[in-house]
Amino acid sequence: MFAETHKTKNDKKMTIHEILEKYWSFKQFRTLQEDIINSVLEGNDTLALMPTGGGKSVCFQIPALSKKGVCIVICPLIALMKDQVEQLEKRGISAAYIASGMSHKSIDKTLDLAVNGQLKFLYVSPERLQTELMRERTKRMKVSLLAIDESHCISQWGYDFRPPYLQIADFRTLIPDITCIALTATATPKVSEDIQEKLSFKKNKKIFQKSFARENLSYSSILEEGKEQKLLKILKNIKGSAVVYLRSRIRVEKITKFLYENSISVDFYHAGLETDIRNKKQEKWIKGETSVIVATNAFGMGIDKPDVRVVVHLDLPDNLEAYYQEAGRAGRDEQKAYAVVLYTLKDLEDLRKKTWQSFPNIDTLKRVYQAIGNHCNLPIGYGEFDSYDFELPEFCNKFSIPMQDAFHSLKRLEEFGLLQFNESYFQPSKFMFILKDKNLYEFKLTTPTAQPIIEVLLRLYGGVTENNFVRIYESDIANHLKVSINQIKNQLMRLQDLNVITYQPQKNKAQIMLLTPRIAHENLPISLPKWETKKNNALDKIEAVINYVTQNLRCRTQILLDYFGEKYSFCGVCDNCIQRKKEIKKLAENNIDDFQKIKNTLISGALPIKILVEKLVINNINNQQEKYYIDFIRILLQNQVVSYQEDGRLKWNE
Predict the structure, then answer these.
(1) Same-domain pairing of 447 and 499
(2) CA–CA distances in Å: residue 422 to residues 100, 101, 271, 391
(3) Which of 76, 244, 308, 621 could form a disulfide with 294 if both were Cys (CB 3.0 to 4.6 A apart)?
């Protein structure tokens, strides 16, 4: 085992269990975590398939802490990078991320920290791997591990395909001896194979999959025209924390108002709110000051509230992967919890319609791409990895493009690896001193006008002389110096121009970044066959959702797990299983002799249906009796009392 590899300042070796206890305050690993960690430490390329809330991050963070060097973590979402970096910093672990919207100087400085061994974790987007700066600095880093978060994004068969993930295999050639761990909460067998192939897993690879089954989680799907009233009834019957998911911001606020007027402790959350407001709403819900949060799918990233008793979907998701993740936020304390879908027949029609609309024709894509280039004033052949503030309504008005066409085109252009679009990007202000000690002291003496702000920076942010960015609040500095916030920003920019500090002002706008030099719109590399394949894949996924919500016989956990390639009998706690139990009880009571007869015959071993029927009629050849038993067995099959084995024989399930 590679348990004793991390060292303290006193060079005392620590086991992975000691690292877990020191930084996470846990004495034991969860299921599979220790096996995955040891696989990584043994040098195996490793794929970890673990449900939401299963503790995936620990599986790469502890191996990285056990080794010398920096762990490069590839992550698709800025919000996720930001959350994980903040969590690591709270534990006293050095971490940073690089995201679109950061200045070149800030990116350069962050990479220097990694090269100089002053970071344990460096989070980057897959797009960043293509930049020359990232590639050259990586060659100079002592890399301990390469971790691929949300690795399903590498597969075109996944639900969130990101073409830049395909560049990771090429990036690995820069660090050929470094182990790779890929992690995801949702992957079908096809996606799992794709991940291993596209990441160029070596022969000594290992795959770990934790069961997707959640024994404490009861799934239900209800066809209901009066969804709001049904929602109200559910929330009043199931006490405790709850999440209600909808697709539209307007509907989120409308449902919140309805629940509030009906005496529910409720608040709403969506990406259209200011970041500090979203954070306050989220914090109140986590602390239990608000019971119910009504939200779009923007809510939930990085949240691990254990005592959520119910998650209700008032609108249908686009795919079962997203549904499984969102529903899985219920019952993480392993106590009884519920995941409920409320739908109407119109919802099914609308889902199909919206999916078709989400694939604009190729001419529309080209028009939107051309407008983006013009909006950013980019000539053909320029703009690679440049980041721009981007307001979608302003863009649509400027170029007379319908909002729906523009939004869906941006998403599709992103999938084709042409750009990156972050709808609700927030990055707090940060700074770091470039001048240190004697040089900083001499600058203060020679530039007395800068002395007050430098003194305040040193007093308010004690660790700024270290080689790390520090989050700052211009309002606090302004209060100390009794000047306006704009004056503080101007002074900070001036200090940056004088190479005294590196200053990264707060950004709170959507960002757009071209991932290639601007291409003439008529030459966009989008083929019709590839376009049709993507569209058909999306349509298949919504049909899987529709099958899940409309199915009234099969166990819902069984449907979900079958989708993810896991064999499962039935959960016994979903709405269909509960109904099935009632049907079986009724069936047994009304046909007690025949029910018991079939049970007794099969309980000693599975049989082909022909032999089973022969045993039941007991040599009394009677076509009517044979037909009766065949029909009775068919009812038992429908209710999953009996089922066929792979060899074609019938077995008793009860």
Answers:
(1) yes
(2) 9, 10, 11, 11
(3) 244
